[in-house]
Design brief:
By secondary structure, the protein is mainly alpha-helical. Helices cover 87% and strands 0% of the residues. Helix 2 (37-63) packs antiparallel against helix 3 and helix 2 (37-63) runs parallel beside helix 4 (99-126).
């Protein structure tokens, strides 16, 4: 269990740091502007949501039947997608000038964090012995 959590946290941290560094470098050296505050906030929110969802799914896999795990996974994936849509809608209404940079950067972070989450959950489910 600790190996699973430490591997996930290590990969999660690497992805978040590289995404933030990439956003900073692109904004500073390619676009000659600063990274919008909205991007930092949205990345922090999706990062926290991903960690919470991953921990709940690990617990669901240990304590429940496979059908319940699948229900939890699909439910949390829907919640994460709706949270993302709501944040992008709010950003579009509040800060239209930074919408393109924040939306594209956020999509990249969202996709990579989802990939890391799936990469670490699939072996867990396969090895659960059910």
């Amino acid at each position: 269990m600790k190996d699973i959590n430490s591997k996930f946290l290590r990969e999660f941290s690497i992805v978040v740091v590289l995404c933030l560094l990439g956003a900073y470098l692109v904004a500073t050296y390619v676009l000659q502007r600063s990274v919008p505050l909205s991007f930092w906030i949205m990345t922090a929110i999706i990062s926290i949501a991903t960690i919470i969802i991953h921990r709940v799914l690990i617990d669901a896999n240990e304590n429940k039947r496979p059908q319940v795990f699948v229900n939890y996974f699909m439910g949390f994936l829907t919640v994460k997608l709706m949270l993302s849509a709501a944040m992008l809608l709010i950003l579009g209404l509040a800060d239209r000038e930074n919408l393109k940079f924040s939306a594209v950067g956020y999509f990249i972070v969202y996709a990579l964090l989802t990939a890391v989450e799936l990469k670490n959950l699939i072996p867990l489910v396969r090895n659960s012995g059910r």
